[in-house]
Amino acid sequence: MELIKQIKQAESQAQEIVEQAKTQAAKQSQQGRENRQKALAEVEVKRKRAIEAAVAAAESQGAAEVEQLKAKAQKEHSQLREKAAGKMGAAVSKVIDKLKG
User: Fold this and answer.
1) What is the pLDDT of residues 7-44, one digit of tens each?
2) CA–CA gap between residue 36 and residue 33 (Å, rounded)
């Protein structure tokens, strides 16, 4: 009788150990999933920040290039206008001379 009682007690303890192991495994699995999700979220935030920084840098660089091009175009326009104005006087004089002539 005592042996049967000990066997049943051992079986009961073994079952408890198995249940505890299952519970522990489930907890560890859930913790692993949560850790992976957290890591993925952090990576996503870093990726978005990197993209935002790259976009901001590109916008800044683009704006600087636009300003440089505007200044260059304005300078070239002014030079062309000055050059044309100088030639305009000579051309008007030639036309007037021919008309008088």
Assistant:
1) 989 999 999 999 999 999 999 999 999 999 999 999 99
2) 5
Model pTM above 0.70: no
Amino acid found at 92? V
Residues of the chain with pLDDT > 90, as a percent, come to 72
For the record, the structure tokens of 8 come out as 């049943």
Q: What is the C-alpha separation between 31 and 94, in angstroms, rounded?
A: 93
Cα gap 96→101, rounded to integer Å: 8
Amino acid at 11: E
